[in-house]
Amino acid sequence: MEMKELSLRDIAHSFAQRNANYSQFHGKLYSFVPPEPDKALTFMNEISLTADAFPGNVPATMIVGKLASLVPYRANPILVQEEGQLKLQFQIENLRLPDCDYLAIVAPVSRNDGETNYFSSFQAISFLRSLIALSLGKLPFYAWIADFDFDIEGVVSLTSEAVRVPLYGDFFKIFDASLVNEILGRLVRQQLPYRIRFQRACDFFDMALSQRNEAFRFSSYWIALEIIVGGKNDAIRTSLSKAYGNSNKKFADDYLLFGEISGMRNSLIHHGEFGVLKSYQERLLQLYFWDIVRHQVGLNCRQLARELVLSGLVDQEKQHK
User: Fold this and answer.
1) Are 91 and 163 within 8 A, CB to CB?
2) What is the pLDDT of residue 321?
3) DSSP-assigned beta bridge partners for residue 75
4) What does pTM read for this prediction?
């Protein structure tokens, strides 16, 4: 671990001595509240961090100290619609952080052909956090404060979260109040156990809508579906096919792209692999939920997911590079 007396410039040059291609760096700032902080610092300083030990061969290091002045501002992106156009605006927030100890974890950022890629940096930081949590749990980085970038001279630049602008599937809309009113009317008549299960499912659905990490967003949608169908083996596929009046559960795979979605779940849960959650995939997860709910409360199938599959939006997004 780098001693707190070192500056960002010192750390940047230390990275550059290992690899001359390292000229841009990313950091994450956390609150630092470990039990027995002196022992925690001694322990963290005794860890020998070498690039070869990191799974991606990209190193990361830690700084602990009074780092409140490190990130004086944070940019919060806000997507707005003005005159029929989507625009990205930013709220510049003065953090005014308390003068206390913080933990910063920093790693080099990859640059290829002039493009900046944060993936390897995020991986290195994730590995180091996981390693420290083995011994100290989450208290050394109890709460995320801010992300920041800096250059080879230690000059910090203002950063913000990445924002995915709405894409094809996001624009699939259903302006039919009767669809919602029918569901509300039937929910009133349901027994308490179903209403409780439905509410729990909606809690995870809402969590998915707010989740920034796409893998966790996907997982939250999947959990919502598992809850609403009872969580039994292959129950989502079976319930979805039945909602369309088909006893063959492969119907969902063949006509509703459920095989593709289920494959994403298997890759994530069994192999820890997850690429990008495309807009049509997220919209399908939402529509699966309501197709199943309508069937469960005794309403006719409106074929919401199938309508999206046939809309052309899925093909457009698949063809988009």
Assistant:
1) no
2) 61
3) 92, 160
4) 0.79
